[in-house]
Amino acid sequence: MILFEFKSHDGMGLSTDRVVAIIFYQTRPDDSVAENFLHILKSLRGDINVSSHYQRKLDDKIREVSFQSSIPCEELRQRKIVSKLETQLDAQIIFRHALSSDVPVRLAVFDMDSTLIQQEVIDLLAAHAGVEESVAAVTARAMNGELDFSASLRERVAVLKGIPETVFEDLKPRLTLTPGADVLLRCLKRAGAKTALLSGGFMPLATHIAKVLDIDYVYANELTVENGSLTGELAPSCVIVNAERKRELLQSIAAKEQIRDPGQIMSVGDGANDLLMLEAAGLGIAVNAKPRVQDLAPCKLNCESLVDVLHVLGLTREAMESTKLHNV
After folding, report:
1. Catalytic positions
2. Which of 9, 54, 74, 149 has a CA-to-CA distance to 242 between 20 and 30 Å?
3. Would you state the pLDDT for residue 116?
4. Is 91:43 a contact under the CB 8 Å cutoff?
5. What is the pTM of this model?
6. Edge-to-edge, what's the strand order for the sheet holding 107-110?
């Protein structure tokens, strides 16, 4: 279903990329999407040469424009280019490498809190300790990259001391999947991809969500429990799932699955803790991310449903309906 094709060479010996722009318009566009888009792109990058372009409708307000580019995809992803394009087109834009139909994305890696689920688990736990407001403020700053993640995690875990370990069972029914998460994961699994959940949260709830979504690999932080209550400390053996650890886990899972090409890996997250794994994947998407993360991530997407990630991969609304992946 999905394969990223990296640089190739045309008959003239010029190094080129087959680049795809996925354009999420605010209103339904007319039929001149490709011409308008490429005209604006050329006005921003006068040194770009484009050829053999075409466009495709993915949904009413979503278009795919594919073209051969003399400037590599990674360079077109620069925030100053994307921002100007988005302003002039009144749209969101994601640049990615062209996809091939013969080999699927083989590994899809996800953050959990505020990505696959709509809550931040540490904040739910803090509510039980009566310190939700102060902990939520620290969480927001950590996810925006203003604080060291590992140090702030230990600080937040400390206030959980004395909470009964049964809190995890109490919280499971309160966890809300992000709209489209089940459709996205089901589609990836049907395409043969391995899936992983890498969370800076905690194992009891991470394993629960992994089971709900049939995710293959799950990693999260472990808490210490004594006499049925949380001690306010991480387990001695716990390797904190921070940004560096997420990147390391992505790479180790890829190695285990014998995936050597980063272009066969997709990662999705929303916080500063996800930036390194977003950069390590061939397609790293910051979804509904914190402001600083949107500025630094390879690609960003603000959406109401994770089904839009399938559009980024080139799946049309009709294809989803025909395979009964999405009830609309």
Report:
1. 111, 113
2. 74
3. 98
4. no
5. 0.89
6. 217-221, 194-202, 107-110, 265-269, 283-287, 299-301
CA distance 200 to 198: 7
Strand 50-59 and strand 91-97: pairing? unpaired
pLDDT digits (tens, 9 = 90+) for 254-271: 999 999 989 899 999 999
Token pair 């886990």: residue: 249
* Helices assigned H by DSSP within the chain: 33-44, 73-76, 79-89, 121-129, 132-143, 149-158, 167-171, 181-190, 203-212, 243-256, 275-280, 291-296, 307-312, 317-322
Compute the distance between CA of residue 165 and CA of residue 145 in angstroms, rounded to an integer.
Answer: 30
List the one residue out of 217, 218, 214 whose CA is nearest residue 188.
214
- As a whole number of angstroms, the distance between CA 188 and CA 215 comes to 10
Would you call 296 exposed, middle or buried from its count of C-beta atoms within 10 A (0-12, 13-18, 19+)? middle
Write out the two tokens for 115. 């990505």
Burial class (CB in 10 A: 0-12, 13-18, 19+), 253: buried
Q: What is the pLDDT of residues 68-90, one digit of tens each?
A: 999 999 999 998 999 999 999 99
Token code pair at residue 82: 């994307």
pLDDT, tens digit, 9 for 90 and up, residues 171-219: 999 999 999 999 999 999 988 999 999 999 999 999 999 999 999 999 9
